[in-house]
Amino acid sequence: MYSNELDRWNQRYSSSEYFFGQQPNEFLRSQSYRLRPGQKVLAIADGEGRNGVWLASLGLDVLSIDISPIALEKAQRLAASQGVTITTEVADLATWDWAVERFDCVVAIFIQFAGSDLRTHIFEQIQASLKTGGLLLLQGYTPKQLEFKTGGPPYIENMYTAQLLQESFHNMEILHLVEHDAILSEGVGHNGMSALVDLVCRK
């Protein structure tokens, strides 16, 4: 499975163009007021680095992880072009060592390649890896996204609902949780009307 996933993502990121664009996710941008320079941030499945590079521009200490080394090479080029520094690490999230209470913030933007079992593992590790008081900033697709077909996997079991996220992170303080529709313009990967759910919670 790892090699198939690796091949799939490497192929997706092999173009000189940035598949999801070079600008940060709008939901993430809207949460910038919650972040402070010097905080250590984990950007999960950060791909070509659009979110991690933007976070670094705010003065954050960013670790950007992804399964694709090709994507992370592009992330480093993007960081250099913006005059910022990020740390990148190739990671299979099923086996990666998350460590305990390591991060002030975890950013999880459209990490819905994960089916239910892997998702449960990732969500548990996110909580463990956050320091007390640390934040999770997450955006994903709801099942309605299968009607829009403007991004994300075609599997309903990979989608999120507000109820699923509330149950998954019930041990954390939920600061913001809402389902909504909005137009995304994130490269060719996410483009058009989209069914979204946003979550901000604190450990």
From TrEMBL:
UniProt keywords, alphabetically: Methyltransferase, Transferase
Domain (Methyltransferase) ranges: 41-134
Coiled-coil residue spans: none
InterPro entries reported for this sequence: Methyltransf_25, SAM-dependent_MTases_sf
A Pfam family the protein falls into: Methyltransf_25
GO biological process: methylation
Claim: Kinase is one of the keywords in the record: no
Gene Ontology molecular function, alphabetical: methyltransferase activity
Protein name: SAM-dependent methyltransferase
Gene source species: Scytonema hofmannii PCC 7110
UniProt lineage: Bacteria, Bacillati, Cyanobacteriota, Cyanophyceae, Nostocales
